[in-house]
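FW: tagging you since you asked about this chain on Friday. Here's the raw sequence from the shared folder, copied in full. Didn't touch anything.
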Amino acid sequence: MTTHDSESTSFLYPFIDSEETDAQSLLDDLAASARGKAAESARLQKESLDEYGDGLTAAGIDMADRFRRGGRLYTFGNGGSSTDAATLASLFSRPARGRPVAAWSLAADQAVVTALGNDVGFDLIFKRQIIAHARDRDVAIALSTSGNSDDLMTALTEAKQRGLLTIGFAGHEGGRMAAMASAGELDFCYTVHSQSIHRIQESHAMLGYRLWSVAQEHMSRPAPNSAERIAPDSGERVAPDSGEAS
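HL: got it, structure written out here
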């Protein structure tokens, strides 16, 4: 390991750089480190649920109502948060149980993302897709550990203006995403109060699961208009007798 590599990872496992020669001592330190990280993650997840329980329920109910009307879910993020966004979209579109809904990660199509980044600029890669695909009954969820990513903020602003339900997952102190929520420019913002990107993303996964769970619970109840159902592949409403999309 080079000096630069050691410096860049020492904050994660400082005991590795201490050059311990006792294998058992090193294993004990590794185990203690893992237990400490797991405890911190569990604490943050509990605190986040306690802080945002009512907001998660309100957002999940709104999502369920939109899905019943044929609404779709669009998720997006950068870097590791883009993979979290893809996982969240998959949870809604291909759940292990319950009702699937139309959901896409806007970072999943490499051709679209790279074309937009090259032609119009990286800050617009998600906004342009919202303009192209979204409708006022849809849902947009952005994930950012900093809450400050320009491409996410522009996409959320566009989604809000078009009538979508807008939800942001942030970290640290919430950044611009939290400021947007305070100004009424974002419907819901859930900030995980931590300086660790790893712990933030772990809590984001839990918050996303909670949204899915609430939405599933409410979609399982009889719809206000039971004469309509949702075609899971297209997200369009289907009349039960004709079998044709309305």
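FW: Strands lie at 73-77, 103-105, 139-143, 165-171, 188-192, 229-230, 237-238.
HL: agreed, and Residues 23-68 form the longest helix (46 residues).
FW: great, closing this out.
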